Amino acid sequence: MTYGEAGRGLGVHPNQLRYAAATGTVVIRWDGARQPTVWMLPAPDVDPQAARLELARRYLRVFGPSTPSAFGQWAGIATKGARVAFDALGPSLTPVRTPIGDGWILSEDERTFREPAGSTAAARLLPSGDPYFLLQGADRELLVPEADRRGALWTPRVWPGAVLVAGEIVGTWRRAHAALTIELWRQLSRKERDAVGAEAEPMPLPGIGARVTFGVPR
Q: Are 123 and 163 in contact, with CB atoms under 8 Å apart?
């Protein structure tokens, strides 16, 4: 059933189902800004501590280098519990230094970090909540050093999407039906504007039959 139907049927605010999802007995399939679909199912047969360690490994694989504090914020657990997980993973972690301070990566990922950067796409429109910028706390400074720009990307409400040009976040985007609006943090060259347009025009939007139109400030 849908998110709203499930909440009304249980007599709770639908937002509370998000917290229930962490128990493993509720599965939520998200569909962008639309009402998500909810299933009930048996809880997984897994040791809670083992599950937390695996969650920390997966977190570092995607978001590392990072810290126990940032992991705790991301996972919705106390910082103490996050530190316990990192301590338990100690032999499999490597300390690193970043522009914003010390952090950790999985030791098995060190080779990947040392490899030369590969080629980047000319432009990408990342959706709201994309893992690329699903960071917490000070980790966000690694992607967006300017505080005012961080506030534009990680807003108190629903986040906009991120505009990537040659691997750099240069602005945000939102859409209303087939109309896509882009807010830029710097001026784009003609070639960059064309690349953003080429990314936007064929974008598949569920339930929208019209051609996507977009505006890029000059």
A: yes
Strand extents, DSSP E, 72-197? 93-98, 101-106, 123-126, 161-165, 168-176, 179-184
SS3 for 28? strand
Q: Map residue 168 onto helix, strand or coil.
A: strand
Residue type for position 144: V
In Å, how far are 46, 96, 173, 184 from 156, measured between CA atoms?
A: 34, 30, 16, 19
Cα→Cα distances 76→62, 65, 72, Å: 17, 19, 6
Predicted confidence (pLDDT) per residue in 201-214, tens digit: 887 766 666 666 76
Q: Cα 43 to the chain's mean position, in Å?
A: 25
pLDDT tens, residue by residue, 53-88: 999 999 999 999 999 999 998 888 899 999 999 999
CA gap 23, 60 in Å, rounded: 22
The Cβ-side half-sphere exposure at 40, using a 13 Å CA radius, reads: 4
β-pairing, 93-98 with 123-126?
A: unpaired
Give the Å distances, CA to CA, from 158 to 17, 117, 146, 154, 161: 18, 31, 20, 8, 10
